[in-house]
């Protein structure tokens, strides 16, 4: 279980090759829904404790997990952070970050 930021800055839960967006929060739990809910009509969910340190339960998805997609999201986050912090040349940052990953992630 880990977290990344979406392009709009919201937290995304990454768990077992799936990504989730936060749906509902209570004092003790957080409910997450599959990020592909609309595109795949997926009803997969996950419930974590609050603050999130572990996944309490999860439901099945209608699609297969995609660890390469999750890794690609992490790389995009790293590239964005590097551009913001370093300023640097975007083509150099892209080359440095992408060389470390398999073609499926790129």
From TrEMBL:
GO molecular function: zinc ion binding
Transmembrane domains' residue ranges: none
Annotated Polar residues bias: 42-56
InterPro entries: Znf_FLYWCH
Domain of life from the UniProt record: Eukaryota
Residues in FLYWCH-type domain copies: 3-63
Entry keywords, A to Z: Metal-binding, Zinc, Zinc-finger
Disordered: region residues: 37-56
Protein name: FLYWCH-type domain-containing protein
Organism: Dreissena polymorpha
């Amino acid at each position: 279980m880990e977290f990344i930021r979406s392009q709009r800055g919201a937290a995304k839960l990454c768990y077992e090759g799936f990504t989730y967006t936060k749906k509902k929060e209570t004092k003790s739990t957080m409910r997450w829904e599959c990020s592909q809910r609309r595109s795949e009509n997926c009803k997969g969910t996950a419930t974590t404790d609050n603050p999130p340190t572990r996944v309490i339960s999860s439901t099945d998805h209608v699609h297969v997990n995609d660890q390469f997609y999750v890794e690609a999201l992490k790389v995009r986050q790293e590239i964005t952070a590097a551009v913001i912090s370093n300023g640097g040349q975007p083509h150099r940052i892209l080359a440095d970050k992408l060389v470390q990953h398999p073609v499926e992630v790129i």
